[in-house]
Amino acid sequence: MGEKWPGVRDFFARCAVAINEEIAQEGAVVPASAEVALLPPVSGGAVL
Amino acid sequence: MIRLTSDPIDYHALTEQVRRPNCGGVVLFLGTVRDLTGEQVTVALDYEAYAGMAEKKLAQVEQEARERWPVVAEIALVHRLGHLEVGEVSVAVAVSCPHRAQAFEACRYAIDRLKEIVPIWKKENWSDGKSEWVHPQGAE
Description:
The structure holds two protein chains of two kinds. Chain A is α+β, with helices and mostly antiparallel strands. Chain A is 12% helix and 21% strand. Chain A contains one helix and three strands; from the N terminus they run αβββ. Chain A has a three-stranded antiparallel β-sheet with strand order 2-1-3. In chain A, a hairpin with a 2-residue loop joins β1 (16-19) and β2 (22-23). Chain B is α+β, with helices and mostly antiparallel strands. Chain B has three helices and nine strands, in the order βαβββαβββαββ. In chain B, strands 3, 4, 6, 8 and 9 form a five-stranded antiparallel β-sheet that branches. Chain B has a four-stranded mixed β-sheet with strand order 1-5-7-2, sandwiched between helices. The two termini of chain B are 31 Å apart. At the A-B interface, loops of A face α2, α3 and β8 of B.
């Protein structure tokens, strides 16, 4: 997505990705009808 | 017990909720809205959650604390959402155990872990009228 929309590349790089409300690792497969969320770093300071 | 709420947190009731006759130690942690961050004056914070996942992760924190300290009798984790003024309670963790050492340890673990894995964000509202979502330093 960062290549398609360079303006948000830095922001995406800081985000974790959740699939169906669980943190996904690099290369994870998104099941059909899954809910995908981009999560910026939480206020507590750590990466999810 | 875990909860997200937009209402003020009744931490006295929460503390009573975890008290048990076999527990000689009860620890309550309150996170409150601080008026200064560095040299910037905060007038209010806005909290938002990815609610479904936040509730799951709060439950995970409770589960982890119970696994690490099986003597924990009760643990309550409550996080408030919405607009909070300086001094208001944004988060409360109450833990009861037979003895105080494990109650302190489990409470410390639970609040640290909550801040680490529960998807809740806050926006600082500064005294100069500006506002900004908090972006932790060092997070990649």
